[in-house]
Amino acid sequence: MKMAATKILFISFLFLSSAFLARSAEVDDESEFSYDEKSENGPAKWGKIHPEWSTCNTGKLQSPIDLLNKRVEVVSNLGKLCTHYKPSNATLLNRGHDMMLRWEGGGGYLKINGTKYQLKQCHWHTPSEHTINGKRFNLEAHLVHESDDGKTAVIGIMYKIGRPDSFLSMIEKDLKALASTKGVERAIGTIDPKLIKMDGKTYYRYIGSLTVPPCTEDVVWTIDRKVKTITKRQMKLIREAVHDESETNARPAQPVNRRPIKFYKPEERP
């Protein structure tokens, strides 16, 4: 009898855990909200669409934010960004407002303060969601990672108009193939996340949230300071592939609320 009760409790725990993860992760169907400020389901009203999205309106650690120099504490103890990515089978999914590249079984991991965060997916926002000293860039990539206990860490990479980005060039045909579909996940073979080249030598670090519903908080954000380049055509492809009739899929900046923002810069050797 004791054994049966224990088994029921364990199954209940698994169910609740998976339900929590489902609520805390980014939504795969983005059709219920919009980025139109004047819309009934626009950014200011995301928290009223579903009870489990209420944090979008009530949270005090929301993202994105403006990374202002005068707010930033320069530190040298965080260390160079420690990623251990590996080539893995990947799929592309048009979620409604963005294209998501998902690694089946994870694409390796990011290590922060001894915790491993498995790379789950990557998606893009135009223009950038985070700003640096009020400056907005043309595109921002988000590499979303999860730890075994359900915590999230995201790396943000900014892009400006310039030379083509080699990673986007590599998946261009797949992006075009999905442009007329929605909610269909397309296998695109083995993709090496290391090809999304980032600098990682200097970066911002702060605690924030997901930038799409359910806007879950306590997300560890790392914003690479080195700005990369894309062409206008690549930016247009990323935006138009989703066919959501919106000019942007970037959430407006959120209040910082006195959060500490660190900027990692290694000490210069004499």
From TrEMBL:
It comes from Nicotiana sylvestris (Wood tobacco). It comes from the Eukaryota. The lineage of its organism: Eukaryota, Viridiplantae, Streptophyta, Embryophyta, Tracheophyta. Residues 1-24 form the signal peptide. Its EC number is 4.2.1.1. Gene3D superfamilies: Alpha carbonic anhydrase (3.10.200.10). It is an enzyme of class 4 (lyase). Residues 31-265 form the Alpha-carbonic anhydrase domain. Belongs to the alpha-carbonic anhydrase family. Reversible hydration of carbon dioxide. GO terms for molecular function: carbonate dehydratase activity; zinc ion binding. PROSITE patterns: ALPHA_CA_1, ALPHA_CA_2. Coiled coil: none annotated. It catalyses: hydrogencarbonate + H(+) = CO2 + H2O. This is Carbonic anhydrase. Keywords: Glycoprotein, Lyase, Metal-binding, Signal, Zinc. Its cofactor is Zn(2+). Residues 243-270 are annotated as: Disordered. PANTHER family: CARBONIC ANHYDRASE, CARBONIC ANHYDRASE XA-RELATED.
